[in-house]
Amino acid sequence: MTFKALQMAQVRRAAAAEDRAAFRSAMESALRTLAAALVSAALGVAAWQGWHWATNSGAFALHEVRFTGLFHAREAELLQRSGLQRGENLFRLDLVRAAHALEGHPWVASARLERRLPDAVLVSVTEHRPAALVQLGALYVLDEEGRIFKRATPDDALDLPILTGLSREAWVDHKPELQLRIFGALHLLDTWRASGFPAGSLSEVRLDEGGGFTLFAHEGQGLQEIRLGASEISLKLQRLSQVRAALARRGERATRIDLDNPARPDQAAATLADTR
Length: 276
Description:
The chain has helices at 2-54, 75-82, 95-102, 168-173, 175-194, 233-249; strands at residues 64-68, 108-116, 120-127, 130-136, 138-143, 148-151, 162-164, 202-207, 213-219, 222-229, 254-258, 269-272. The protein has 276 residues and is an alpha/beta fold. A 9-stranded mixed beta sheet has the order 6-5-4-7-8-9-10-11-12, with helices on one face. A 3-stranded mixed beta sheet has the order 1-3-2, with helices on one face. A hairpin with a 3-residue loop joins strand 2 and strand 3 (120-127). The termini are far apart.
C-alpha cells in the first residue's frame, strides 16, 4: 500500500508540473500576441500619420508634368485633357483616370503615368503611327495596325497614300471583309517599299472589285496607273521595275502599265505617254 501511495504522489506532482508548464506557455504566447498587436497598432498609427502628412504636405505639390512620345498630339491639349493641376498633392492624383482621359485623344493609342517624387508626373505616350489615308466619304487616318483612328484634318499635314475604292455604306455593312482588304493594302505598301520604290512616290491604292489593286504613282513628270491584280504582288513589282527600266532606256514613259494578265503572267502591257 505504501508503494502505491508513493506512485500516486509522483503522478500528481508530474501532472502539477505539466499544468504549470502549460500555463507558462499560454502566458508567454499571450504576451507575444499582445506585444505584436501593440507593435502593429503603433506601426499603423505611424503609417496613418505619415500618410496624412504626405497627402497634405506642400513638399509634394505637383510642379511639373513631363511628356514623352509626342509627335502629333500637343502637350498643352493633353495636359488640359488629363485633368492634372499644378499644386495638387502628388499622392492624391488619380493617375488611372488621367490615363483614360489621355487615351480619349484621337492620336493617343496608350498612356502610362508615373509619380516622380517629390513634385513631378512622367507621362509616357504611345501614339498611333499613321500608314495611309482612307477615303470613306471623308478622309480618315489609318495606322500601321490597320485601325482607322481619326478623321484627317489639314493640321495633320500627312503626306500618305490614299486608299480608295471603299464606301462608308460598304464599310458599315461589311467591315470584317473590308478590314481584311485593308490589311492586304498595308502589306502592299510594305512590299512596295521593300521592292525599292520610293515610299513618297505612291499616291493612291485603289481596292478593285474582285480583290485586286490598282496603284497610282508618280513616275518622271507624271502620274502612272499600275494595274497589279490580287496575286504575286512582289513578283509583279519586280516586273514593274524591269518595264520602267526598259522604257527609260528607249527614252519613253508609260502612263499606264497592266501587270495583271492571267493568260500571260510573264507579259506586261504599257500605254505610252505622248512625248511630242
